[in-house]
Amino acid sequence: MADQATAQEFDILVLGGGSGGYATALRAVQLGLTVGLVEKAKLGGTCLHNGCIPTKALLHSAEVADHARDGAKYGVNVELQSIDMTAVNAYKDGIVAGKFKGLQGLIKGKGITVIEGEGKLTAPDTITVNGTAYKGKNIVLATGSYSRSLPGLEIGGRVITSDEALKMDYVPKSVIVLGGGVIGVEFASVWKSFGVDVTIVEGLPSLVPNEDASIIKVLERTFKKRGIKFNTGTFFQGVEQDNDGVKVTLVDGKTFEADLLLVAVGRGPSTAGLGFEEAGVTIDRGFVITNERLHTGVGNVYAVGDIVPGVQLAHRGFQQGIFVAEEIAGMKPVVVDDINVPKVTFCDPEIASVGYSEKAAKEKFGEDRVESTEYNLAGNGKSAILGTGGIIKFVREKDGPVVGVHMIGTRVGEQIGEAQLIVNWEAYPEDVAGLIHAHPTQNEALGEAAMALAGRPLHG
């Protein structure tokens, strides 16, 4: 045990260098604490290397493809000749490499000790990496998530996850996307723009089932218009594959055939075999159970990000990392509830939402205690210029604050900043209606929706 006694000790020892882990580390050193950051692969985790950043790069290439295809509509005579996946990947990988280099420099410059290798929790204050024990007065578990599959559904060959989809060096002719959530609709959107025949299979009654009903309606209508096919309300039964392609069967016997099957049924927590349960940490279906202040109930062990039940979003993990660093430093930070974490789905049209859907608001505040309004982007100058339809929907407590903002349309993701301030600062529609929104912007639509909900619609 001699090596245990001389083990390097830190104020905070973080297991995992993704959004949650590195945010914990950066905020902790800012507060004068010493930090050890254990990472088995690359700093930046899923988000930077095979999640948010590379996916959004593909979506931008897809947007450019659509612009080229539709150029004549705007008086620009270009034609879309082909999609060069080698060049698309070079662009995407270049973005990732640049961000990775910047992050490495930032972590190094702040004096954070990066411990390379696969770490395991071997005691409530110890993480062992490649046989060496490191001690932490506080431990933060931030091991992230992986692309899940369904029981009995083997990934391999023509059955792929988003990890393989991000590395593809060719454009398939046809794809079946299993799962109509965020990841599924984003990839469906990219592939459709690249000229692929796409069918989404979703067992639940609609695409993006976690969104407000009004948003779902617009997305499904627009996807139909774009030629993206989808089958909802029937669950997946099985898949067969051969050299020619895949054949997917649903529980009702319906079959679909394509070149590939993308399994996009969500992400699972990466917690298996890391010593968490042995150290006394409560695990439920792979997730680490914490109190609202992200403490596990064991020693000084905290958890952040995708391994904590709730919305699996990089910026939530990031915010939780900052929260835990401040919590450990005794600053008593404010808890941000999951419901008030902003969400953006970057398909075309984009979806952005924060707070309660109308249905959820009625369940919480009472059927007759909720008011909502929808502002149609058809009336917005900038949206007309961009050639997008869509809506901005506000949900408020009757005579009370705005509790939800839901948006759909090209580029509306950029409006989530003001939307989350409105909801998190518990603004009344009257407060927002009195503020000036620049013209011509899509941002004005937020002002218009607020005016309508305040009972004084200007353009409606």
UniProtKB/TrEMBL annotation:
The name this protein goes by in its record: Dihydrolipoyl dehydrogenase
Organism of derivation: Pseudarthrobacter sulfonivorans
Known catalytic reactions: N(6)-[(R)-dihydrolipoyl]-L-lysyl-[protein] + NAD(+) = N(6)-[(R)-lipoyl]-L-lysyl-[protein] + NADH + H(+)
InterPro entries, alphabetized: Class-I_Pyr_Nuc-Dis_Oxidored, FAD/NAD-bd_sf, FAD/NAD-binding_dom, FAD/NAD-linked_Rdtase_dimer_sf, Lipoamide_DH, Pyr_nuc-diS_OxRdtase, Pyr_nucl-diS_OxRdtase_dimer, Pyr_OxRdtase_I_AS
Gene Ontology cellular-component terms listed: cytoplasm
PANTHER family to which the protein is assigned, alphabetical: DIHYDROLIPOYL DEHYDROGENASE, DISULFIDE OXIDOREDUCTASE
Pfam families the UniProt entry points to: Pyr_redox_2, Pyr_redox_dim
Positions of FAD binding: 56, 119, 143-145, 306
